[in-house]
Amino acid sequence: MSTHTNKINLRVITPEKVAYQGEADGVTIPTKSGEITVLANHIPIISTMKHGELVIRNGKEEIFMAVYNGFIEVKKNCVIVMTDIAERISEIDEEKAREAKEKAKKLLAEKDRLSDVVFADTTAMLEKSLARIKVARRKRRR
Amino acid sequence: MLSTQQIRRQIQSTQNTSQITKAMEMVAASKMKKSQQAALLARPYAEAALNILQSVGESVEPTKHYLLENREVKNLCIIAVTSDKGLCGGFNSNVLREVQKIVNLNKDKKISIIAIGKKAENYFKKRNEVSAVFNGIGDTVELRETLPISKLLISEFLDKKYDKIIAVYNNFISTIKQDIKVKKLLPITRRSLEETIEEIQDMAKNEYKKNNGVDYKFEPSAEKVLRNLLPNLVETQIYHVVLESNASEHSARMVAMKNATDSAAEILDDLKLLYNYIRQQKITQEISEISAGVAAQE
Predict the structure, then answer these.
(1) Which tens digit of pLDDT belongs to each residue from B67-87?
(2) Do B167 and B182 contact (CB within 8 A), yes or no?
């Protein structure tokens, strides 16, 4: 195993922009089969993501992002995270996320009356707001 | 001969028009910059998605997925991507002409048209069956605005209402050059993917690396990754098409408005020349009349 580098080359991409690009010590990703942390010299892997919190560690710096669905590809210390949203703490409006969560929960309570499409949309809304709230909480803890 | 007053009125109205076209040119220029940038920013994602798909494709036999199903084409769906507003040169008419050509060539099939933008809606409402209309996609498109389109396409393809879906749109090449492009969206085939990869590669001038020999571990499984990835790819492609079309629209409008402003300036020059000519003629005539009167009195 090559040991000349302990860094990974990370790119976080959404359909609208490149949210992060550069070196990192490690990244923690919520995947459908559980949270994983990718460090240097990880085996090649392709996996699917769910909603949650993405943590990028670089030296003493930690960056938290709210993510929703997507894929990761790890290959030769090159990590690509493709996700629908990638929002940093500063970009998140916690108030709004809470409102969206309550609204989605209310709608989902009467799911028998919802069509499949609305149900899927509402679930997506709920999951996105949950991810945002989770990341936004970090701000207060500091 | 026109009177000086008439010409003055013409000069005034031409000036007003050129002021408007100049303003529209500036507005289009700033929107163009934004939309071009959006189109560029969206490319890495499309590239990464195709990259992963290729890696998956090498590991699984990608036949067992509904979006890959190649059926005999009885129902053809054409997506005509135009703008809501006019005054952008041949931008809309080029798309409409191309779609009409495809319609004429496929008379034996049942054709449905999905119109994006008011121009396509108005045109096809009179002629063919329009099965869906999406208007009001803003100058700065976001992915969630195009999601309803891709959702509709995927579900209709699944229901076998459409056997093949193509999109006709303006592909952005540069500010002065846009090409009409016909892109096959569904079913997804290896060929259409390779074409898309080549395109993106061309545009981004990026080196596309094939994943030769990398043995990936798939979580939860390659099939599941594929099942999640394909709808995502359709969404990305539609988004991409709309972005390209948007960038083209603003570029086309800017160029059209610049031409209009230029020709207004030309017309103004001609009119001013004519105006001065007539004015001088009038003065000369008056002077000669006066001097003739003076001469008669002497």
Answers:
(1) 777 788 889 999 999 998 888
(2) yes
Q: Which residue of A has its CA nearest to B232?
A: A70
DSSP assigned state of A62: E
- Domains in chain B and their CATH numbers? 32-253 (3.40.1380.10)
Residues of B in contact with A67 (CB under 8 A): none
Whether the complex's predicted ipTM is more than 0.90 is answered with no
**Which pairing describes strands A45-49 and B110-116: parallel, antiparallel, or unpaired?**
unpaired
Which class does domain A8-89 fall in? mainly beta
Whether the CA torsion B208, B214, B215, B218 is positive or negative: it is negative
Q: How far apart are CA A110 and CA A98, in angstroms?
A: 19
Encode pLDDT of B150-170 as tens digits.
Answer: 888 988 888 888 999 999 999
Q: What is the pLDDT of residues B95-105, one digit of tens each?
A: 999 999 999 99
The Cα angle at residue B61 between residues B57 and B67, in degrees rounded to 5: 75
Q: What pLDDT is attached to residue A10?
A: 93
Is B80 buried (19+), middle (13-18) or exposed (0-12) by CB count in 10 A? buried
Token digits for B160?
A: 């076998």
> Which residues on B lie below 8 Å from A119 (Cβ)?
none
- Decide: B166 and B76 in contact? Cβ < 8 Å: yes
The residues spanned by each domain of chain A are 8-89, 93-141
Q: CA nearest B242: which of B94, B118, B138? A: B138
Strand duo A52-58 + A61-75: pairing: antiparallel
CB contact (8 A) between residue B218 and residue A47: yes
**DSSP code, position B212:** T
Closest residue to B225, CB basis, from A17, A69, A71 = A71
SS3 B82: coil
